[in-house]
Amino acid sequence: MGRLTWRLALLGLLVVVGVAAPAGVRSLLMVMMIYAIFALAYGVLLGHANQPSLGQSIFFGVGAYGFILPVLRLGWGFWESLAIALGAGAAAALLVGALAVRVSEAYHVIFTALLAAVAHLVAKNTTPLTG
Hints:
Layout (H helix, E strand, L loop, with lengths): L2 H18 L2 H25 L8 H19 L3 H23 L5 H20 L1 H4 L1
């Protein structure tokens, strides 16, 4: 069997498990896939761009809050909230990217770690909005 055949078989197995599994297992699978995408993005950033970044959690958090807050606070549907999450993530990426590309090497790591710490403090101090 070739590599493509194994990958298709694994994908088929995941689809069958995802459809046939109880709701708790599906929820766990979705969380696992979200973190897998997060890890793949970090791998691309570190492996191909050779720029270690500690600020990816900013976009993860902005996207998550950008999706869930319109659902909970405004009662919006999936697609509208997804559009808001994508827009908020893109705006955060433009802001952080415009600042982070100006520094390199060790300063880039330090700067992105500081931005992540600031974003964490902002999320912690806005609990009336975020819950």
